[in-house]
Amino acid sequence: VSLRxxxxxxxxxxxxxxxxxxxxxxxxxxFGDGGSAKSYFALYxxxxxxxxxxxxxxxxxxxxxxxxxxxLERLFGPAFPAVRHLxxxxxxxxxxxxxxxxxxxxxxxxxxxxxxxxxxxxxxxxSEACTLYWQTVRQFGIGxxxxxxxxxxxxxxxxxxxxxxxxxxxxxxxMTYNFRGDETGASALSVGIYGRKSxxxxxxxxxxxxxxxxxxxxxxxxxxxxxxxxxxxLPLP
Length: 237
Prior knowledge:
Shape: globular
Low-confidence stretches: none
Helix content: 25-40%
Oligomer: single chain
Strand content: 25-35%
Number of strands: 11
Number of helices: 7
Largest sheet: 9 strands, mixed
Mean pLDDT: 94
Distance between the termini: 43 Å
């Protein structure tokens, strides 16, 4: 095509949830230690998308539909949004046809993959498995969120700049966020979400408090500087 004949991007190129941007048509990677609520937020955003009219498919290599159902009900109540769940057992390359059929049958507009280490079908540190993963994702032709983990350094601290594995996990995503959790009691968690990459300019750093009440979970935005452990993740300026 001639680029002169292509319509420019519209104002709705981003989804925004409490200050966190997710591109509508491009891949986003979120990464962090276990227990930093990555999957919880992915499911929360999926529910919000469904409420706004976008059908979401949660492709899951790690957990079960029953566990995610319980979380959705805690987040949204008994009339929770109808997020679609697909249990996956092979590499994303081998699951491609199942995912494609679900996209067509359910008119899916957004995908969530949990998690890339199990989905890539090889060594996540190698370029081959990573590039095959991204080639497959591009064939689906819709926006997507990808959950990744982090590398532990020699001093026991996690790498909070890029996901674990090949540099392509960071380079091929159009937007990346690092998650950091800080327990603030037996039933609460403060989560810092730090923008590490954005193809659209300014990166955002946000924080949220997650309250685990007996029958519901409440997520509310807070000032990232109000939690000392999360403020350490901010850039010096």
